[in-house]
Write a structure and sequence with these properties.
Largest sheet: none
Structural class: mainly alpha
Distance between the termini: 66 Å
Helix content: 55-70%
Shape: globular
């Protein structure tokens, strides 16, 4: 029978995989941004204490549930564009550490950059 540490690792891996699968429902630019952020955050929290680990998992489980609901709405409403995400309450923002506020600001700046889908350049140098 697996011990508590093995169960915790299993729970973390399952949540991580679930989130990456849910990101497939996002527009491409958001998927890329979300995947990178998730990978970075899960890496960053590998060695936190038990209380922080539980809070971390709880918040990401809530995120996964909201994203699952929004992805289902998106599939059902093919005519209407779904808005992914939820607003942060002032209460939640007040719980953030300064480092988290900085990360949130970086994420917002990255998410609101103009979307450059193609890099078109003069290809005359490649022509024969």
């Amino acid at each position: 029978m697996p011990g508590p540490a093995a169960l915790h690792v299993s729970r973390v891996r399952a949540l991580y995989r679930r989130i990456l699968l849910l990101h497939r429902a996002l527009p491409v630019a958001l998927k890329v941004l979300g995947d990178e952020y998730v990978k970075e955050e899960f890496r960053r929290h590998r060695s936190v204490g038990p209380a922080d680990a539980q809070r971390f998992l709880r918040e990401w489980e809530i995120y996964a549930e909201v994203l699952w609901q929004q992805a289902n709405e998106d599939r059902q409403n093919s005519r209407k564009k779904t808005c992914f995400g939820t607003p942060l309450t002032e209460e939640k923002l007040n719980d953030f550490h300064n480092e988290q506020i900085g990360q949130l600001q970086e994420l917002m700046q990255e998410a609101t950059k103009p979307n450059k889908q193609f890099n078109i350049s003069d290809d005359s140098e490649y022509k024969n």
